[in-house]
Amino acid sequence: MKLPIFLDNHSTTPMDPRVLEALLPYFVEKFGNAASRNHSFGWEAEEAVENARKQIAKLVHADAKEIVFTSGATESDNLALKGVIEMYHEKGNHIITSSTEHRAVLDTAKALEAKGKARVTYLSVDKHGMVNPEDVRNAITDKTVLISIMLANNEIGTINPVKEIGKIAKEKGILFHCDATQGVGKIPVNVQEMGIDLMSFTGHKIYGPKGIGALYVRKKAPRVRIAAQMDGGGHERGMRSGTLPVPLIVGFGKACELCEQEMEAEGRKLAAMRDRLQAGIMNALEEVYLNGHATQRLPHNLNISFAYVEGESLLMGLKEIALSSGSACTSATLEPSYVLRALGVGSDLAHSSIRFGLGRFNTDEQVDYTITRIIEIVTKLREMSPLYEMAKEGVDLKTVQWAAH
Amino acid sequence: MAYSEKVVDHYTNPRNVGSFKKDEKGVGTGMVGAPECGDVMKLQIKVEGERIVDAKFKTFGCGSAIASSSLATEWLKGKTIDEAHTIKNTDIVQELNLPPVKIHCSVLAEDAIKAALADYKKKAETETK
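The joint structure predicted for all components is written out below.
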């Protein structure tokens, strides 16, 4: 087995070789500008882009014309929130979102607030990380113009009741934006059934290239309009100017096509592998806690806290396995994961959390190796942990007066 | 973040992990930090006469926190009480090559040393009374 092992597929995914093969000709041989209307180089590029647009639209049950290319999900989120607030400012300025959204949504909302352009309600989530649709309904005011709720969380994998939220948005005539970055290509997404008006997603989370994403913008019932945040040649129906990166778009299209064909079988495979990982760890170690929802979660996600062990030191001992931690020490802010905190996970357990993200190219052998190494290193670090020692002596850590610093 | 070789060495082969009995004669115990902050250090010294003859630690925290406390026990062994008081967090930063974001780990280690020395002093005073 080759080391290191990549188990951080929520951060990014390796490109599928079939995607690379599909996009390569569009760098040197087929280099045309898709906006060049009067020669064959341009026509060839345009045809490739429109084919990709269809592949992408098909995966999420949209019309090809409703796909706007961006540089990635962060730009899509920015375009959705800023574009809607700017376009509909006469109607209202209120946005409803949730406290566990990705920072691309939260920081965009905060920036709009800081500039006095929007008022934002940040809904709290339940202990599994799920938004309650009734909370969305209750937060709606006559100034609400946008609801922005993610499909699935990037840390804990919890899947939101998006369909119910979409129904409420429709009922109230409010636009619904969904950041579906972690869900598209992993679980079935249908913008019609889910009542989604705007949706962000990206290529590099689904074995496609980095630097290409999409914003789905509904064309009918209702026809959604957004103010462009990038002015120029009027590409993408005037919503996002800039020469289209044809190779990246071709790759994104191919990646979506592969997901569409293989998602069902792949989801089953990943869920089985994830369950094997979870059982292997939890059966061997005491005081290990699952973060997120037990069943309503992405098939490839596992987020667990190892009590009495700090996350970064755990990752340091597992340097041949690429993982992510909710520990403060792995972030620039020295604050533990705001997602876990929003679930009501104590700071101590948030510091002890590890996120496993399985992907298309992981194997059972890698999972078994990871289980063995996790058990080994957690046991070693617990032997070294004063908290574990105290707990074993019967001290209730909650009653100890800590000298906080 | 890349760790310095010395941090990796202390993390991989921590020196003096373990515990003395708190009520044992000549033992001073310092416990600093909080689980909510992501690091807790327990540092213990064993004193005979004026000299620290042994030291042990247990740490919940990142690699740099483990390395700082491991290094502290190494330095404490063989020192007199007065010499132990002169160990500064900046010495630890320098020895382990800690980046700015990890300086608090060295501060915690210094606090743990001070706490252990204070505990020893307090115990010694009550024992002689």
